[in-house]
Every structure is written in C-alpha cells, then in structure tokens.
Amino acid sequence: MADSPQRIDRPLSPHLQIYRPLFTMMMSIVHRITGVGLYFGMAILVWWLLAAATSPSAYATFSAVAGSPIGLLVLFGFTWALLHHALGGVRHFIWDFIHGFGPERVLLAKATLAGSVVLTVVVWIIGLALKG
Amino acid sequence: MSTPHSGPAPARATMRTPLGRVRGLGAAKSGTEHFFTQRLTGAANLLLSIAFIIIVISVAGQSYAAARATLGHPLVAVIILLTLLSVTTHMRIGMQVVIEDYVHTEGLKVLLIVANTFFSIAVALAGAFAVLKISLGG
C-alpha cells in the first residue's frame, strides 16, 4: 500500500483530458473496466453455486432471474467482459516478453476487440444450439 | 573526491551487499509479488476459464438434480475450486490497484482495500463451500 500524504495544491501533469483518444488507450481503459465488471459479476457466480447447494426452489429462483431478458443480457455482457479481459491479458503476456510495442500494437488491440466479440457470439451460439 | 553515495559503502553502515539488500527486499519489505501473482493467476485463469465456460454451458438449462450431479462430479468440482482460488486472488490484486490509483484519501482507501479483501475472500469461500456441499453430498 502506497501512502497518500497530505494533499497539497501542486501543478498537475497532463492526464486523460489532454490527450486525443487513441484506440490502444481506450482498449487499456476497457481492460480495466471489464476487470471491475467481472469482479462484481463473481457475485452472480457465487449465487448460482449457493442456489444449487441450497434447494430446488432457490435454484429455480436463480434460473428464473438468469433466464429473464435482463439476466441473459447481463450474462452475455459477463461473457464478453471475460473474453475481452482474457484476450487483453494475452496481450499483456506478449508485452511481458518484450513484443508487440511496434506498429503492430494497433493490430493487436483491434484483434482483442474483434476476437472478444466473435468469441462471445460463438460461445452463445454453441450454448443456445446445445440447449435449444 | 568520494561522495557518500559513490564507491563502496563504509563498513560501519552495513555489511550487506546491494544484492543482499535486494534479496531482503529493502525498506519496502515487498517487491514484485503483485506483478508476478497477477501473471501467474492470469495464466491459470486463461486455462480455467475455458473449462469453466464448458461447465456453465453443460449445466445451463439442466434440471436441479442434473445440475447438482454435474457440479458435484469430482473433476468439475475441482476445476471450480481451482477457478475460485485463482480468480479471487487475481481480482483482489486487480481491484487493489484500481483503488490505489483513484482513491487518494487515506482513510477511505484503507477502508476500501479492507472491503476488497473481505469481498474477495467471501466470494472464494462461499463458492467453495457450495461446491463442496454439493460434491460431498450434504
């Protein structure tokens, strides 16, 4: 934990508001936002497991909420956030091995976004096809 | 010519070499654990998430009894337990970084970091308890 000393009014270095939004920059922000979303989404996962451990009626309640339009939308969003954060993590591994800092970084960022959307749709098509 | 910070340190100051001080982690008493743990759990999460998505798809739409049978299968239960351990470790560190980046009031920051720990451990233990209860037939 870093200490935060008494606040003193000092000149601030330029931050987000001064830079032209760049695609790679937005993807970095989205990586953090999806991480925070997944953090709170874990509560849904635990609800699912606890409901299955508790009783048929508790499980029915969860299934009704999860199967409602809003529930499905949240689960779809959770799937996308998970896959986007996972692919963003792969990008971090590439950087860790000192690759991907050249012009290809934009391609990597676009691949992360496109890949997460495509994989999300694929996962849901497979899921819905098997459960029809 | 020699200044206090150039050349060998006076023998009285410390007997430890610079490498020894680094290994002892210096004054901060912590080093790159968070960075390394995020990579370690991140790699684990990649593998476990694939297995987890398959589990969720196979359980989705199943009856209560069938869902419990799937979740209680030893292989499935172990994968979920590993996922809970790896994910909650990863999300706790990640959220701590977010808190430290944006919350600069000391008291609120400490409070949120404590709440972050409570939430992460609660998710891990509640999920693990549910899986074990199902799997061990409670």
Automatic annotation (TrEMBL), chain A:
The keyword Signal does not apply. It comes from the Bacteria. Its cofactor is heme. One of its GO terms (cellular component) is membrane. Keywords: Heme, Iron, Membrane, Metal-binding, Transmembrane, Transmembrane helix. PANTHER family: SUCCINATE DEHYDROGENASE CYTOCHROME B560 SUBUNIT, SUCCINATE DEHYDROGENASE CYTOCHROME B560 SUBUNIT, MITOCHONDRIAL. Belongs to the cytochrome b560 family. This is Succinate dehydrogenase cytochrome b556 subunit. It comes from Xanthobacter flavus.
UniProtKB/TrEMBL annotation, chain B:
It comes from the Bacteria. Its cofactor is heme. Pathway: Carbohydrate metabolism; tricarboxylic acid cycle. Keywords: Cell inner membrane, Cell membrane, Electron transport, Heme, Iron, Membrane, Metal-binding, Transmembrane, Transmembrane helix, Transport, Tricarboxylic acid cycle. The chain crosses the membrane at residues 46-65, 71-89, 110-132. Part of an enzyme complex containing four subunits: a flavoprotein, an iron-sulfur protein, plus two membrane-anchoring proteins, SdhC and SdhD. It comes from Xanthobacter flavus. This is Succinate dehydrogenase hydrophobic membrane anchor subunit. One of its GO terms (molecular function) is metal ion binding. NCBIfam families: succ_dehyd_anc. InterPro entries: SQR/QFR_C/D, Succ_DH_anchor, SuccDH_FuR_B_TM-su. One of its GO terms (biological process) is tricarboxylic acid cycle. The keyword Iron applies. It is found in: Cell inner membrane. It is a multi-pass membrane protein. Membrane-anchoring subunit of succinate dehydrogenase (SDH). One of its GO terms (cellular component) is plasma membrane.
